[in-house]
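pasting for the record
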Amino acid sequence: FVAIALFLVLAPPDLTGVGNEGLAGPRPLWWWFVDGAVGLAAIAMIRLRWRHPLMIAIVLGVLTSVFTSGAMVGTWAYIHLCTRRRWNEVITVGALFVGVGMLSEWGQSTFYGGSLGLGPTPGGDFTWLGFGVILVFAVLFTAACAAIGFYVGAHCDLMSSLRERAETVGGWVDISSGA
């Protein structure tokens, strides 16, 4: 799996079929190496999500507007942020992620021939249908990520509460040890 992911990130556009059309032509070879390096930096940054979840989610969200190799790590950071269940942070970063997704699709479409083919065409024609479809998918994906994060956060809080209640009563028995 890692080998396939690295190939898709680092392979020249002629091998993957991505980026062969558009105003800017195919992406230069150096772009693939920079994109891969940013993806590796995003993986290194995800370790800081416990100390600075809001900052890491914002930085990775902004990076994914240009460099697609960090998109999954950015999604992971957003889901982790949602586990805290703070609405103002979740809505702010969620709006950032939707905006970044729209900007990324517009840039892909305009300059490199499109990733979904629903946004502006390489000739610069804008389609409201394409914009609406991408916007709906971006909002649904972001909402699904937020729901996963809220579920995980609620589950962790419930387990912590039950463990605390059992310890308070004095009836806590470690089931896994068989005692």
